[in-house]
Amino acid sequence: MSMRWVLMAALLTTLAASAWAQNNELAGVFGRTFISDQGIVGATFTNPTVHFGNGFTMEGDYARYLTPESLIRLSVEVPFSFNLDEDLGSGTNAIPEGYKSFFVTPSARFNFFANTRVSPWVSGGGGYGRFAESSNALYFGPNTGPKGTNTGIVQFGGGVDARVWPKISIRGEVRDFWSGTPQLNVDTGKSRQHNFFVGAGIVWHFGK
Hints:
The chain is mostly beta strands. It has a single domain, classed as Porin, CATH 2.40.160.20. The protein is built from 1 helix and 11 strands. Strands 1, 2, 3, 4, 5, 6, 7, 8, 9, 10 and 11 form an 11-stranded antiparallel sheet that branches. β4 and β5 form a beta hairpin.
């Protein structure tokens, strides 16, 4: 084997070792949030249901690895989820036309087969959320209900990371942010709701 090939092999080995030694990551994920419709208690008008649109959602995620890459790796992660425009629909003008939401949920994550190129994972944790209800009512006029709702969040999720470059992976994921409900100004009989986020994005591995 020529010296050129020896040097090239050594370089590739060094890059691979460096990649697997990264202890931090930043991820950007984009997708949609899905929320089940909620019936309005005692409604007598047509369409007595609150319908939720599939709001475009951005997620940022920082993670710190606590154990080496092996069969199972433990990390602490902090997902930040922003639902930019959750449209609402119903047969009543009482509800707001929509809302924005923000969730942050420090969590523990377990990556399986973390020392391979394809690594499925599961995550669980909890934190804080806030809904920012629109100042406008659904059809016309101002939203006369409260605006700005704080809530506790429980987060469960799972996904797959696929390494495509020494420091870059692509990610597909599903998370359930189980939260309180926004101020809808009607009685749906609900005090909690599931916010299912489905998305895909890019992960950058860095640092030691």
